[in-house]
Each structure stands twice: as structure tokens, then as C-alpha cells.
Here is the input.
Amino acid sequence: MHIGNGIICPVTGIPMLAIAGATAFYAYKQAKKDFSKEKILPTVALTGLVFALQMINFAIPQTGSSGHIIGAILLASLLGANVAFLAMCSILIVQSVFFADGGLLALGCNIFNMGFLACYVAYPLLFKPLENKNKPVLGAILASIVALQLGSIAVVAEGAFSGSITMSAILNFTGLMQAIHLPIGVAEGVATGLIVAISKVVDTKKMSYTLSAISLVLAGVISQFASAKPDGLEWSLLNISDSVVMQTQGLLYNMSESIQHNLSVLSNMPYAFGNVVGLLVVAVLMYTTCLMLDRKTVTVKNEK
Here is the structure.
């Protein structure tokens, strides 16, 4: 569901980037209130796991398309909405900047579609109520499905606002996006529910180390066998190719493409090596964020 630069124009991309930035600031301030040092290891491990899982595209039978887990509901269910949103920001920034996976101009849209809607809509409205009724697995499945469907609708809206999708193709594009992301949401929900269930009976530290090892294997080995078929968004766009008007003109687009071309060094490395380096970059970025969250402000009172 990573949108490239050509689908989003500056009129849409810049305000969405501002919204993503404001939400990240809110998430940081809220997460800082109750974040503790004990949460650093599981936060870094889970962020790394989601980053690695997003590398594993699986083929969707009978469609000619593929999909991958987004992971925002998984992060929110185990870390809370605010920390999860910051983790998704870290993942999407590294993907965009160092892998050119998702356009810089579309970064705000991607953060909103894959992070905000999952963490602040699907998670509190679906997962939390069902978790409170002792049905976390069902909550994970339903929240994951809804999060991807909402994200799919947002992609359509952003493309339409940018002038990339003609008005006559909006309904068709919406139908294609909803249909192809439904099985992805189901797969993600089942995987999320399984991990959530395991987390309730496994020691947090042991689970964090295990997830870190799994992430390395996924990034360094399994990712090489991921499906090469177009993902859900690419597949949907291919099916309405006659109605797509790419936004590839203008100074901001050219600047965005140039900057991304120069920074996306990991995309030019040997596949497995670049993925592992990217995983380490995400881990360092999230670890730094966690240190900032754990840093408490000390108020010094003047003695009279």
C-alpha cells in the first residue's frame, strides 16, 4: 500500500505530511507520560519484526497480485497506540528514505494510511473493546481487516484529490483496492492474533530476543523468496491504467525524486545485505526514540 511520488501531488502530499508530523508530536508527548526503560527492548524488537515482515510479499491466489503485512495493529496491541504510531513512522521513513519504497512526497499519506488509521481508529474502536471482553484474537483479526480497508479507501481519496485517478474510475479503483486488501487483512489479522496470544504466556524478554532473531532471518534469508508479483496497490493501478494520470511534473516532484534517488543507498546494495542493514537502521532509530521517551524532565525547585 506504499504510495509512490507519482500518485500524489504537492497539494495533497504537503498537508498530509503536516498531519503526520502533528500526530507524531502528539503521540510522542502522550507516550512519554508512561513509557519506561523496561519497554525499550520489546518496542525495538517488535518494530524490527514489523519492518522485516513488510519485506515478505506473499502471492494472493487467482489474482496475479501479492500482499504483505502492515503490522500497525500488531504494534498497537502490544505497545499501545502512541508508541505503535511512532514505530510505524520509523519504519515508513526508513523505507522511503533508504529504500525508495514509498515516495517522499507521499510519506505523509503513507503514514496516515498505514499508521494513523490503524492506531487511532481501528485499534481503539475494534481491538480494545474485544480485548476487554477477553477476545483479543478476534479483535486483532477484525481490527486488521478494517485498518487495511480504511487505508485502501484513503489511498483512493488521496489519488482523487491529487488528480491521479479520474472521477470515472474512482468506484472501480475503490472496488479493486477493497477486494485485493481483504485477504491481506485476513492474513495479517490471523498472524497478529497468534502473536498477541503467544505474548500473553511467554516472558517478555525471551519473546523480544526470539522476535529479533526471527527478524534477522526474515530480512536476511526469507525476504529473498518473497513474491515478485505486484502488490495490492500496484495491481489495482494496473487494472485501471487507462484512468491513471501520473503527477510527474513540477519542481517539488523533481526535487523529491532527486533527493530520494541520492538517499536510497540501501536499495542498491545486495538484496539480503541491504535488508539487514535497513533492519539495523530501524532498530537504532526506534532505540533512540525510546531513549527520548524514557528521558524524564526534572524540575528543580528554588529553595527560599
Summary: DSSP finds eleven helices and two strands in the chain. The radius of gyration is 19 Å. The longest strand covers residues 58-60.
